[in-house]
Design goal:
195 residues; mainly alpha; 9 helices; 70% helix; elongated
Length: 195
């Protein structure tokens, strides 16, 4: 499935023929159709699998508790965004995120792809919103902040960084943009000392 995903990632849905899939997998046409259905079914399957894995990775990197990457929710959030910016900038060639590519290529004309992308975006924004709520609970972010709106804002920043990295914008610039996005989140007021 990874080979099939990479083929679609490189050449897109329209640019990938059944023969390309046969060559990539080493399977015959009949075997591909028997195992996976038609090209569209296979495309949606690898896209859905990718989206599920992407959300799971975000959840793992942003979670708190004993398995947390960093103890501070805001530090985890910044680390997550900066690591994505660094990864997008470091790709050669710059192919970006498969979620972004498929959404741009197919969501406007393929309702099944659009629904899968929408679900992935909702889930990713939800994971980011959860990290904001964790930061609110830890006293790092102001209580009045709308975590859901911020989750989508941060997701938009990530998708934007993904897109502009393809134009070969340098890693330092993208990482600064990621850090700046996190820095704009309203912080909680420190407790006042009693007199």
């Amino acid at each position: 499935m990874n080979v099939v995903r990479d083929q679609f990632w490189t050449t897109g849905f329209a640019g990938t023929s059944t023969y390309d899939l046969m060559e990539a997998t080493g399977l015959g046409k009949g075997s591909i159709y028997k195992a996976f259905g038609n090209k569209h079914d296979l495309y949606v399957r690898v896209f859905s699998d990718y989206c599920r894995d992407l959300v799971a990775q975000a959840r793992e990197q942003l979670q708190g508790g004993p398995k947390a990457v960093l103890p501070s929710p805001m530090a985890r959030l910044e680390h997550y965004l900066v690591s994505l910016a660094s990864a997008f900038a470091g790709e050669s060639p710059h192919r970006g995120c498969f979620l972004t590519k498929v959404t741009v290529d197919r969501a406007g004309e393929d309702e099944e792809v659009a629904q899968t992308a929408r679900r992935a975006f909702d889930d990713l924004a939800g994971v980011l919103a959860g990290a904001i709520r964790d930061a609110q609970d830890a006293g790092e972010v102001a209580d009045h902040v709308d975590s859901s709106a911020l989750g989508y804002l941060l997701l938009s920043v990530i998708r934007g960084i993904d897109s502009i990295a393809k134009a070969d914008v340098d890693a330092a610039t993208l990482e600064r943009a990621a850090r700046s996005a996190v820095a704009l989140i309203p912080r909680a007021e420190p407790p006042r000392a009693e007199v």
